Amino acid sequence: MDKFLIRGGRPLHGDIPIGGAKNSALKLLVAGLLTSERVVLSNVPRIDDIATMRVLLQGHGIVVEDVDDTGHTISVGGDITNTEAPYDIVSKMRASILVLGPLLARAREARVSLPGGCAIGTRPVDMHLKGLEALGAEIRLEAGYINAAAPRGLVGARIVLPFASVGATENLLMAATLADGRTEIVNAAREPEIADLVACLVAMGARIVDDGAGTIVIDGVERLHGAHHAVVSDRIECGTYACAVAIAGGDVRLIGGQTAHLGAVVRVLEEAGVEVSQEGNAMRVRRSGGLHGVDVMTEPYPGFPTDMQAQFMALFSVAEGASMMTETIFENRFMHVPELNRMGARINVHGASAIIRGVPSLSGAPVMATDLRASFSLILAGLAASGETVLNRVYHLDRGYEAVERKLSGVGAVIERVTG
């Protein structure tokens, strides 16, 4: 099993390329279920979650092919020959639940295993199911599977989400593109990945108006067609590498990074003492002085993202003063705290909040990744620590970050992947 060896204490300088957004590319691949024609996606990241989604789509009969030898351009499309998404695939990745809406819309039936993914909370799918029922689907839960049918097709409806769920918004949005009549999704998620999905669906012939403030109106069409679409850059990857510069010090350009997509992340970085600016198609991050603690609460976009919580907790562990991190999205997302404390951090968890009291330095230690984002928080701690940090279970990291060791080594970090 692979592990990372990290030796800290070196500032970072140079350029890091930011790839396509994992949380967008996965949904755009699923959108290929909505048409038999070819949808060509460029700027797709080469990560394990994409490989898992390819296998899932191929199981439905969809043809998934590399367009070139880079692995970053993929075409999807074809006839649906199987409407079951089995447990052995769905359990690996929560985003698999998003095949439910498109399968119902196009094939009028679906049998989808309840999802898995990172162990960071229950993350129920109730909003997905209630929204699809509002569109006319008949749904039964049996033996760990969602059995859904819409024998006469889906019908437009007004759906008010009790929470601005990204996954529910995406599932209902895709399903509504082929529904009969108008669908209005109120309190829809507003993440840049939603706008990216809307842009791709419109290119495929969907009729969608997104006001950008939480209301999306979809007028269903009979069929969608093929299209070409470039995946938006990954704001979470961008924010993660910004934290790397912040914790290690230095001056790095994040090529393809967009401050406009990062919402509250840029504000928190600046409050912590980090300089952030947009320079053409790159986000520049600099830190030469000390770090300062900041109180942060995770919120739906454009608030501070839950997917950046672990990385900032590592950053605040070496910041002057105390910080409070309050998690409002997932109830079990502090599993990285014991590992950071093994490296000398002073973090105490009280319910949904963690108090981080900054220390002058961290010490390298053997640590274990528990989920995707927590994995990178331990790399960040290793960049700031004295001695060697050994990060085990990096398969979590490989689900969502491409070529981590190459990107960090390219700007001066000492990090090595070893097998065994």
Task: Please characterize this protein's 3D structure.
It comes from Lichenicola cladoniae. It is found in: Cytoplasm. With 420 residues, this protein is of the alpha/beta class. The protein folds into two domains: 204 residues, Enolpyruvate transferase domain (UDP-n-acetylglucosamine1-carboxyvinyl-transferase, Chain), CATH 3.65.10; 209 residues, UDP-n-acetylglucosamine1-carboxyvinyl-transferase, Chain. Helix content is 30%, strand content 27%. Strand 8 and strand 9 form a beta hairpin. Helix 1 packs parallel to helix 2, helix 4 runs parallel beside helix 6 and helix 6 runs parallel beside helix 7. It starts with a strand and ends with a strand.
Number of strands: 26
Instruction: Indicate the structural class.
Output: alpha/beta
**Could you say what the CATH architecture of the largest domain is?**
Alpha-beta prism
* N- and C-termini, Cα separation: 5 Å
β content, as a range? 25-35%
Active site: 118
Protein name: UDP-N-acetylglucosamine 1-carboxyvinyltransferase
Binding site for UDP-N-acetyl-alpha-D-glucosamine: 94, 307, 329
Family: Belongs to the EPSP synthase family. MurA subfamily.
